[in-house]
Amino acid sequence: MAESRTLKLADPDATARLGHAFAQALIAIQPAQFCVYLQGELGAGKTAFARALLAGLGYRGRVPSPTYTLVEPYTAGGFQLLHADLYRLRDPAELDYLGIADQFAAGCLLMVEWPERGQGRLPPPDLRLGFSIVDMGRQVVLQALTAQGTGLLALPSFDPCPQQI
Fold it and tell me: Is the pTM of this model over 0.70?
């Protein structure tokens, strides 16, 4: 059974806190592989979350949106991380040329924006984060889909936002 949590993100700082808490949870569990699907409409906070997660892992470089490059690789916090944005993908088979599945199999953290565009070619997610624009802020539903994802959400240190709905 999938565990889920809904959080209200009142402002960009709340999104940053979520990304940092997520990074600290990853550091705590040290997964060899971990896959996160980031879903939501344009401007809902997916890339902002990814930037905050990378900052939380200690990455200090520029973090561009991978909308045009499709995949951006990073090394941070002792992890190899791939940040993919599949918004411009026309056919899931295009993922074969990017080598995401091979890199994930070799061991990395994978964050995928617009994962529905890569359906059938992506590894299954440990966590799905669904971002939405609500009033003047954002809401995110975190859904654990594996034991590893459930373990991450269950960590006492994973309490990024005081306003859980």
Answer: yes
106 secondary structure, DSSP code: T
CB atoms closer than 10 angstroms to residue 44? 22
CATH number 1.10.510.10 given to 3-141+150-154 = no
Distance CA 92, CA 88 (A): 11
Instruction: Please give the single-letter amino acid code of residue 9.
Output: L
State residue 42's pLDDT score: 85
Bridge partners (DSSP) of residue 128 are 37, 143
Instruction: Report how far residue 39's alpha carbon sits from residue 42's, in angstroms, rounded to the nearest whole number.
Output: 9
- Residue 3: the pLDDT is 85
- What number of CA atoms fall less than 13 Å from residue 44's CA on the CB side? 18
- Which helix (H) or strand (E) is 16 found in, with range? helix 12-29
Sheet containing strand 137-144, edge to edge, reads 3-9, 137-144, 127-134, 34-40, 109-113, 79-85, 71-76
pLDDT in tens, 20-72: 999 999 999 989 899 999 999 887 788 899 999 999 999 998 887 777 778 88
Residue 87 is given by DSSP the state T
